[in-house]
Amino acid sequence: MATLQAIKYNDGQLEILDQLLLPESCIFIPIFNVEDAWAAIREMKVRGAPAIAIVGCLSLAVELRKLAAPETKEELCRFVKEKLDYLVTSRPTAVNTQLAAEACVKLCARLTDNTSVDTTAAKEDIIKHLEAMLADDVADNLAIGEHGARDITKKNATKDKLRILTHCNTGSLATAGYGTALGVIRSLHKANKLDQVYCTETRPYNQGSRLTAFELVYEKMPATLVCDSMAAAAMKQFKIDAVIVGADRVAANGDTANKIGTYQLAVLAKSHDVLFYVAAPFSSIDFQIPNGQSIPIEERPHSEMTHTGSIRTAAAGINCWNPGFDVTPAELITGGIITEKGVFKPDQLAPHQSN
């Protein structure tokens, strides 16, 4: 069965699956410009670090296709940079959009300096660069899946099938397709090595129960939903073999920012002698940030904690703390960081930066 598709793009037409409506309904909404993309990202109609970057960049491609070529390449590049800078502000913790913006700005600079390229050709080159992100992300995810499945299987060589615990949503709904951590789980399932995957509900936004569970049921993978507070008991009761999570930003030393609740899973995994893996493309690694203390952590609205939909479930007047992410220290990532280039210990990332 084909994996779910959360981003549809064809010939300048962009649609995204509105993830706020899942699992009750699957409705695609059009994205006509960068402002639409910014709002969809901010409201979490689309989420997941890779998907955020892709939707943002494709929304710029949509605008550029409609835009008459500016008089100069300098004017074109100013337009592109302003739009990208705006998109970066939509969700500050995930680094993928920032790195994608920097790469596109560098391309603009090269095109501006190249006197043999006119403004129309420069615009087309920028559009091609932005549109290539969709296919590139799927290829990266497939490679992450294969590398991760191979490493986990090797480290559990005495076991016929494996029990995996995952957090938040890291599948087709968070990427261009296939997924990062959930992509590794998909690859284990394809290889007939998956006994059971346990997904946490991932409070307070319930990405696990709403989105990951939806993907697992859709693809008929053996899966069980557990509350976040059940993670320690599940590791002990079900003899979990590995925890696999995604990442919104990885610092140069391997410290990893991911959905709130990831840090406590890493602590629990260490206590239960369970391998802990982070699965992320190299575009999620920020080599400009030395460690996790420098990663900005987004704070989300209190209503995500106090309400379920329109129904209040917490006492009125209670103060709330609602960080969207936490940082897992590199030393707790005992399995390794799974990338499209292979599986590395956290302190081995830097040498592979430009490979």
TrEMBL record:
Its EC number is 5.3.1.23. It is an enzyme of class 5 (isomerase). Keywords: Amino-acid biosynthesis, Cytoplasm, Isomerase, Methionine biosynthesis, Nucleus. The record marks C168 as: Transition state stabilizer. SUPFAM superfamilies: NagB/RpiA/CoA transferase-like. The keyword Cytoplasm applies. Belongs to the eIF-2B alpha/beta/delta subunits family. MtnA subfamily. Catalyzes the interconversion of methylthioribose-1-phosphate (MTR-1-P) into methylthioribulose-1-phosphate (MTRu-1-P). This is Methylthioribose-1-phosphate isomerase. It comes from Daphnia magna. The lineage of its organism: Eukaryota, Metazoa, Ecdysozoa, Arthropoda, Crustacea.
